[in-house]
Structure formats: C-alpha cells, structure tokens
Automatic annotation (TrEMBL):
It comes from the Bacteria. It comes from Agrilutibacter solisilvae. This is Uncharacterized protein. The lineage of its organism: Bacteria, Pseudomonadati, Pseudomonadota, Gammaproteobacteria, Lysobacterales.
Length: 182
C-alpha cells in the first residue's frame, strides 16, 4: 500500500489546547504507510509555537476485539510503539513537558512499546475510518505506568495526542524520555 499523503516540504500548523490540567496536541499527519509486516506506520509532524514537533506511531497488524459485558462498546486490543523521528520528536517531548508544567524531559527515546486499545474503532481499518486509541505504557516497576489517547484520522490528515488523566503527566514523560521527568 502506498502512502496516501504527499510529502510536505514545510509542515502544517499544529495546535496545542489546554482545558484546565488537560493537554491536547493536534498535528498534521505527514505520512501513513503499510509496512512489510502488515502493520501501519503514521508520522505526525507540525509547527507549534515556532518549532516543528513530530512523532511516529507503529501499529501492529493484528487486533483482537473484546465486547464489553456491560455495554455495547468494543475494544480492539493490540500493540505498537511510539517512535522518535529525531530532533522534531525531542521538540514534541519538550512541548509536552512545558505544557504539563514539568522540567524538560530531555531527548525522546528511540521507541517505546505500548499496549493499545482501539475504543469502538478497529485500528486495522484505519485506512477507511478514524481510530480512537488508548495508549498504555507499562513500566518495568509496575508502579509508574502511564496512559494517553491518540486519535488518528487519515482522511482529515490529523493526529491528536490527548491526555487521559493529568495524574499521568510525569509518568508519561518518563516513558517517552531518555531521562527522568521531575
């Protein structure tokens, strides 16, 4: 499958929004392509506060549906990783740290594995419908896990990295950083 989005010389504008302690960062989707293993990679890149901010997300090809007993909602379980694309990802992490009111988190790790739950949206169908993803970053110590949301809409060309809970801010920065957040 070829990329549906033409490459851009200059990234489009991104938007940082705050609602009390919650932070949402919207970035244009620069590229989306199917990998050899059948999974999908999405690269989000945009200019926010004068700097280019970016990240990549690699989604696994297989997703397992789970119908929730007490509702008509379905979760689609799978995995993937959030990945650095270089200095623009370091700037993405610095923007999150600033928006969270925390110290600079330093450079972004090359990649961090995560469990992903598609909320009433099957990530395998991202080519034809938007995906609402819950990202679960599991810590080695079991106590410092973090969660966030990522909404991906290829038709609109938009990726929105969203807070799940402000209590996860410091742990999320630690999960994405090569050094500890304070």
């Amino acid at each position: 499958m070829n990329s549906p989005l033409p490459p851009q010389d200059e990234p489009g504008a991104g938007v940082l929004e705050r609602d009390e302690d919650f932070v949402d960062l919207s970035l244009p989707i620069e590229d989306a392509f199917r990998r050899d293993d059948g999974g999908l990679t999405v690269i989000a890149r945009g200019r926010v506060h004068g700097l280019v901010r970016a990240f990549a997300v690699d989604l696994e090809p297989a997703w397992t549906p789970q119908l929730l007993d007490d509702s008509e909602r379905t979760l689609y379980w799978g995995g993937g990783c959030l990945r650095s694309v270089g200095e623009d990802s370091d700037a993405f992490l610095a923007l999150l740290a600033s928006a969270y009111g925390l110290d600079d988190a330093g450079p972004m790790v090359a990649q961090v594995a995560m469990t992903i739950a598609g909320t009433d949206s099957d990530p395998a169908r991202l080519r034809s419908e938007p995906a609402r993803l819950r990202l679960i970053f599991e810590a080695d110590d079991g106590e410092d896990a973090a969660e966030a949301y990522l909404n991906l809409d290829l038709d609109e060309g938009l990726a929105v990295f969203r807070d799940k809970d402000p209590l996860y801010h410091a742990a999320l920065l630690r999960a994405l950083s090569a050094q500890d957040a304070t």
